[in-house]
Amino acid sequence: MTPTPPQRPPVPAALRLLGGFGLQIDARPVYVPPTAQKVLAFLALHREGTSRERAAELLWPDLPRNRATAGLRSALWRLSRRSDRGLVTDLDFSRLSLAPHVDIDLHAAATYATALAGDRHDTTPGPDVPPQLREELLPSWYDDWLVDAREHFHQTRLHALEAVSRRHRRAGRMCEALLYAMTAVEAEPLRESAHREVTAVHLGEGNVAEALRHFDLYRRRLRRELGLPPSPEFRRLLAPYLGRPADAPPPR
User: Fold this and answer.
1) Which SS3 state, helix, strand or coil, does residue 76 take?
2) Of 124, 135, 161, 243, which one has the greatest count of Cβ atoms within 10 A?
3) What Rg value do the Cα atoms of the chain yield, rounded?
4) Handedness of CA 70, 76, 80, 81 (dihedral sign)
5) Could you give the strand order of the β-sheet that contains 88-91, starting from the edge strand earlier in sequence?
6) Can you point out the beta strands (E) in 12-162?
């Protein structure tokens, strides 16, 4: 009786979704056709797996069902040629999921950012903002199925940046605090909580003029783009220096 050859362990695969798409297999970059990229990214956002029908419907919403299903089959065939150990698992020949040996940067980054967003987190990143707090989820893609996941990670990342800035500020590390706060402002220029944190850092350093200048820049931008004033909370932060009651309407 011929013995069964031992199964080879799966080759590690790393899927990058932050900042843009990338795939490495056994630490080597692998080219993935655009349609197959979308399948991998879609499955990365559905870790529990999803049906073939739903995947085809969401990935090719403008095509008839038969053509969308054919597009999915073609993309899966192309993926099967990229790794002899398989990147996609077909559960019961009806549900698709990424193979367990595929590492996804988004999942690790989201877990990290969620932990940092809690002010009681024990560790604080150093003076350089970690890459996973700088990058957005597939920023150049415009697919509808991606919108909610991108916004979820975007908000989690912003909360983490602001929380880390607060921790650095309270510890007196103003340079680091300003870096994290400004990274949040750059990611979401109209986000008031990020601008308040920048202003609080300036005040913590005793730079009142800088704090007032930043507040005025934000106030003008907010009025120009949304027709709104800064919140009373923001004005109260600067009330001792504004020369008017904290709850008074801002100047036009």
Assistant:
1) helix
2) 161
3) 24
4) positive
5) 50-51, 95-98, 88-91
6) 13-16, 22-25, 28-29, 50-51, 88-91, 95-98, 102-104
Q: What is the DSSP letter of 189?
A: T
Q: Which CATH number fits domain 13-101: 1.10.10.10, 3.40.50.920, 3.20.20.60, 3.30.420.40?
A: 1.10.10.10
- Residue tagged 């930043």 (tokens): 214
3 state SS of 28 = strand
> What would the DSSP string read from start to end of 97-121?
EE-TTEEEHHHHHHHHHHHHHSTT-
C-alpha–C-alpha distance, residues 100 and 114, integer Å: 23
Q: What is the reported pTM? A: 0.86
**Dihedral of CA 81/84/90/92: which sign?**
positive
- The answer to whether the beta carbons of residues 174 and 158 sit under 8 Å apart is no
Which residues of the chain does CATH 1.25.40.10 include? Answer: 140-242
Per-residue pLDDT of the chain (252 residues; tens, 9 = 90+): 444 444 444 568 999 999 999 999 988 999 999 999 999 999 999 988 999 999 999 999 999 999 999 999 999 998 887 765 689 988 666 789 999 989 999 999 999 999 999 865 556 787 789 999 999 999 999 999 999 999 999 999 999 999 999 999 999 999 999 999 999 999 999 999 999 999 999 999 999 999 999 999 999 999 999 999 999 999 999 999 886 554 455 444
